[in-house]
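Researcher: I need the complex structure. Ligand is 2'-monophosphoadenosine-5'-diphosphate. Inputs:
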Amino acid sequence: MTDRYAVIGNPIAHSKSPRIHTLFAARTGQDLVYEAILGPQGGFADCATAFRAAGGRGLNVTVPFKQDAWVWADRLSTRAERAGAVNTLKLDEDGVLGDNTDGAGLVRDLETNLGCTLAGRRVLLLGAGGAARGVLAPLLAAGPAAVTIANRTPDKAAELALRFGDLGLCYGRSYDELAGERFDLLINATAAGLSGEVPPLPEGLLADAAWCYDMMYGDEPTAFVRWARAHGAAHAADGLGMLVEQAAEAFLIWRGVRPDTAPVLAALRGEG
Ligand code: ATR
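Model: Output:
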């Protein structure tokens, strides 16, 4: 019988996950189907329970259900425990395993696809919400000189820096407090781009050969990618590669095979 997988979120109509996993399955010769499920607000657990009862083997979880999935899982991986959010659920005889592949996807896109080394770099992480928290542990594990977290509400940045401080040097700042500092890599994990905005950053943050990475993506260059280019960043990338890499990591958890991501990323870029 063909194994069933799905992504659950709200909204979900524009999710690229079914396309990505269908391409992975074709390329690795795995017999599976992958669909998109619109979860009703407040109805994650019922929806996921019904999918499991119908024989579903795994779920990807997206906005706004990642914390609900964290609660629903029977067991959590270490990285999901830390992230406080789950984006991948493995459903089998042993129960429900919750994992989070977002941070691994980000690090892999940066280091393997883009050639941006993290070790020893000064990293600035913009935002202190769920997206930032979800990637901090894998980011710190890559050995940067330090990760500075900046947020509109500075207390949330300070809280995150404290929570992850055992994994590496971590600072919490307001945007104003960044003035005079320089960074090798800026990562945008804020939701500002949803309204076409960029956080209010002081001038002069970019070191020579600096990278800018937007965890968001779109058919057109995102607001942060445009900001990066306008401010002379040597490299600017959006988060489509992270999306494909977090999916590959989920596919590995479910199927025991890591798909080759480069052709899939190229196909998605071509499809616009
Ligand atoms: P997500 O799960 O996408 O991280 P979230 O937990 O609601 O969503 O967090 C959104 C993040 O984007 C926060 O860091 C938020 O800043 P505040 O904590 O100060 O609210 C940030 N954000 C949203 N809109 C922004 C804007 N226009 N400018 C700067 N930061 C913004």
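Model: Summary of the prediction. Residues 24 and 259 are 6 Å apart (CA to CA).
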